Amino acid sequence: MGSISRFLALEGNIRVLAAQTLISQVGFGMFYVIWQPYLLSTGITLSQLGLVQTMINVSTGLGLFLWGYISDRYGRKPVVVAADACRIMAMIALIASKSFPALIAFAFLIGFTAMFQMGNPGRNALIAESVDSTRRATALSTLLALSQGMSTLMASAGGYIALTMGYTPILYATLVSDILGFTLLFFIKETHKPGVGSASSPIEKLRRALLPEPGNLNLYAIMLVQGFGYAVAYSLFYGALTDYRGFTTLDLGLMSTSFNLVWALGSIPLGKLSDRLGRRRMLFGSLVMGMVTILGFILFRSPAAYILFNGVSAIDICFWMPSWTSLLVEIVPQDKRSTIMGKLDAYGRIGAVPAPWLAGVLLEGYGFNAPLYVQVATLTLGMALILRIRDPGAGSAPRG
């Protein structure tokens, strides 16, 4: 058992986060499948759903800036605990009312956590700092595998429950499992002891908090382009499949099961491959898988094909997430690490801000495939930008 734990980097904070992830994903594994169909069931239009998604993108960007700064200034643990508390409040807002203002409140809170279908910069920094550099991508991949493994079990169940019993049981299960997982976060050990703050002026601090660093402009360009492209293609994807293709919640559940199963099975092997081969190759491979996915969605129409290509899209994530986080840890000093992680992800969300609106316009004006063609263009541009990345090599120490 000890050798397995070492192989998977399951030690200390990683073990606590693994337990918390397994518990919270019981509910969220179902919730990811049904949240867009549920919102549409309250009577809002596809355009209003686009506004909800836009609010999620805006508040996520705000959260990424704020959590990254707080994490570097005050430590990783306070951010992890506070962000998870915001997620619980988001679910309470969603359960409490079906009014459109309540849905906007849910959108703001769930986005502000910077944990809705993405990684919080404080949490990512905590994970990366809890293991040595040779197992960094492995630790990240192990947690992703556990998260997606549980989601695999729950996604189809969520689609079936929604079809036979309605959405309410899933909402309450999500709230309860998140509260239970939240209690484990207090057992986390802090990994970052902040030093004395700089004597810079408030304006200079604000500039540093918001503007890209000159040496990292290519990374910010990648995030802006990919944030825009993926959001145009996927921000209204499940809702559009329901409205335009007649997919049921069971079909969506099977798509999520395919995605989660491939992500769960692929995360650890590809994380270890990233530790061996370096980051740039893996990031380029991610965009190649993204292109295969989007072309599959354009060329085929059946639920079976979408289940297959949704699984391919998980390979995209398996390549990207551990490699991107590991790359940043290896090129950014610790005292700026979480801030820059947050800023980069925030720029991705800034790129995504107009995307739900544009996706709605394209869907209504040109049909289902129109948003997907936008991502074909952004993936092509992203590949060119990836080739310009300086790869420090696996297991490298950050520059000082």
Structure characterization notes:
There is one protein chain. This protein is mainly alpha-helical. 79% of the residues lie in helices and 0% in strands. The protein contains 17 helices and no strands. It has helices at residues 2-7, 13-41, 46-74, 76-96, 100-112, 121-129, 136-165, 168-184, 202-210, 217-234, 237-244, 249-277, 279-299, 303-331, 334-352, 355-366, 370-386. Helix 2 (13-41) runs parallel beside helix 7 (136-165), helix 7 packs antiparallel against helix 12 and helix 10 runs parallel beside helix 15 (334-352). The longest helix has 30 residues, at 136-165. It starts with a helix and ends in a 14-residue tail after the last helix. Mean pLDDT is 85; it is low at 394-400.
Topology:
Elements: H1 2-7, H2 13-41, H3 46-74, H4 76-96, H5 100-112, H6 121-129, H7 136-165, H8 168-184, H9 202-210, H10 217-234, H11 237-244, H12 249-277, H13 279-299, H14 303-331, H15 334-352, H16 355-366, H17 370-386
Helix pairs in contact: 2-7, 2-8, 2-12, 3-4, 3-5, 3-15, 3-16, 4-5, 4-6, 4-8, 6-7, 6-15, 7-12, 7-14, 10-15, 10-16, 10-17, 12-14, 13-14, 13-17
β-strand amount: under 5%
Number of strands: 0
Poorly predicted ranges: 394-400
Number of helices: 17
Describe the largest sheet. Answer: none
Rg of Cα set: 20 Å
CA-based shape: globular
Instruction: State the distance separating the first and last CA atoms.
Output: 37 Å
Mean pLDDT: 85
The helix/strand series, from N terminus to C terminus, equals HHHHHHHHHHHHHHHHH
Helix content: over 70%
> What would you call the structural class?
mainly alpha
